[in-house]
Design a protein that fits this description.
Layout lengths: L5 E3 L2 E3 L3 E3 L8 H9 L5 E6 L11 E4 L3 E4 L8 H12 L5 E5 L3 H14 L4 E5 L7 H14 L4 E5 L6 H8 L5 E4 L3 E4 L18 E4 L4 H14 L4 E4 L5 H9 L4 E4 L1 H6 L3 H16 L22 E5 L9 H5 L5 E4 L2 E4 L19 E5 L3
Parallel strand pairs: 3-14, 4-7, 7-8, 8-9, 9-10, 10-13, 13-14
Antiparallel strand pairs: 1-2, 5-6, 6-12, 11-12, 15-18, 16-17
The protein binds flavin mononucleotide (FMN).
Length: 364
Amino acid sequence: MVDLSVRINDILFPNPVLTAAGPNVRTGRLMRLAAEGGAGGIVAKTVSRKAAADARPTIRGVALRGLVNSETWSEIPVESFLAELVEAKSAGVPLIASVGYSPEDVAVLGRLIEREVGPAAIEFSTHYSGNDIEPLLDVARSLREAVSLPIWMKVSPATPRIEQLAIEASKVVDAFVAINSFGPVLDFDPAHPAARLGTKDGSGWLSGPPIRTMALQIVHTISRVQTKPVIGVGGVEAGEDGVKLMMAGASAVQVCTAAIRKGHAVYGRIAAEMESWMERYGYSAARRLCGVYKPSATDPAMSYIMTVDTRACTGCRACISHCVQGALEMREEKASVIPDRCIACGYCQDWCPTEALSLKEQKQ
Ligand SMILES: Cc1cc2nc3c(=O)[nH]c(=O)nc-3n(C[C@H](O)[C@H](O)[C@H](O)COP(=O)(O)O)c2cc1C
């Protein structure tokens, strides 16, 4: 039996797959459906002091199961959104409200939501709060002063100096959420070369699998430089994606795009896949995944060369046909490295079905 539960800021989540702020959690009804679909916690759509009014269309599909969107924050005015949050609070899993964007906005909204709803924590989005660290820290400090609940800082991937931000903000916030969607980006159909989103230039924000590696990197960076928990978000659509984000340093994950694409049962499906993965690989509890990723296997001061384990090599030639340097050849039915051509880039390893290739230190 795998223990899927995770604890963040003393909030107990039955499993580590939470919703992420987006259209999938726009109303109380949708938030309840997410909980019924197996989400371990509900993060609500971001609300600001003024209701949003987004030009249509706001969500379109792009390659690799990604989305581009131009949805800003809740179009439901905060006075009405409070009732949606109250409804979501009865869903049976912890509720996290989400607010933005100026120091004044988050203070007013934080106080109101703490008093009228009493969620488990408040996440604040920094997506439209400024382009440098100081304005983002001002927002964090303002919310910190306004509420006594745990506060989670949601980081946008385009934020400069994320390491520095994490170090400074960790003195103020209780957890980080990384990442928001990436952009702005542009996509269109060449057969109909016109805007696909309602923004002025048709640009939007990218989410889903195309941003997964960016999320892994930023989660890893934030968790490495400070000690507050990090919640990973970006491209999680299967159990293994969640496992990887947790190994990179996350204490839980959030899901938005996969829920838009596949519906509210996706949260429970991802959690079940994480559980099967952990059973298979001998992890007794989800919390044990956190931070097990080990960076840097090689020594930058050493020089390396690719080597072939001839017992494992099946002579399939996949490495030979994919080496851009032409540094592999067949010898006696096995792959063999041509030392003066090999630059030890490592790419051939991706093509070997039997793990016969490995980098070895080269004697000078
Ligand atoms: C249509 C859409 C609307 C979103 N709205 C919000 C929002 O209101 N607040 C927020 O913090 N993030 C918002 N996000 C970002 C997601 O919460 C998430 O951080 C991002 O999409 C990456 O996760 P994913 O790849 O699972 O979608 C939105 C994303 C999408 C696709």
